[in-house]
Amino acid sequence: MSTAEQPTPAKRRGRRPGGQDTRAALVAAAREVFSESGYEGATVRAIAARAGVDAAMVNHWFGGKEGLFAQAVLQLPFDPVELLSQLLDGPVDELGKRIVRRFLTVWDATEGGAFPALVRSIASHDQAALSLKDFLIRHVLENVVSRVSPDRPELRATLCASQMVGMGMARYVAKFEPFSTTDIETLAAAVGPTLQRYLTGDID
């Protein structure tokens, strides 16, 4: 039989090979499972099954559930320096609206992204709470407040954080209606003035 007549080998079936595509599949699946079940409720077996890979691949790529959680959930989808520049680009008296608009735009694009997984895991995973605090308050809001606020920057930053976390909970975790489906501009107009008061107004 000539080379041209050789039969084409059948494609292999079964689980994914253990390459970078497996790693990416595990990260995506983990974010979904952690969002649904929180850190304690999520199992390596469930995550691997969602990704279509062998559970041993979790240890191979991440060293276990803790390492996978760090990669899938604690690595939040923002560059703090770039985000800070975007938030400060515009009139100070519209900063509250820009913060609401920017965060919801990014979160909506990924249906909340890692936020639901992070929130559901806070009660059972100390690092989740520290990660949210470190990113949202220390890297973003405290930097914003220090540039525009007259006093009490730490309190103002945490007041803003309480508003943003509450919005994220209502929109992506509890999915309160009509809040969860209201357009971003409407929410920016409604909630932005509250953040603005926290940022630059009288909070006594």
Automatic annotation (TrEMBL):
Region described as Disordered: 1-21
Domain HTH tetR-type, chain residue ranges per copy: 20-80
Single GO MF annotation: transcription cis-regulatory region binding
Keywords of the record: DNA-binding
The keyword DNA-binding appears for this protein: yes
Residue ranges of the annotated DNA-binding region, renumbered to this chain: 43-62
Protein name (record): TetR family transcriptional regulator
InterPro entries, per database record: Homeodomain-like_sf, HTH-type_TetR-like_transc_reg, HTH_TetR, Tet_transcr_reg_TetR-rel_C_sf, TetR_C_16
Species of provenance: Amycolatopsis thermoflava
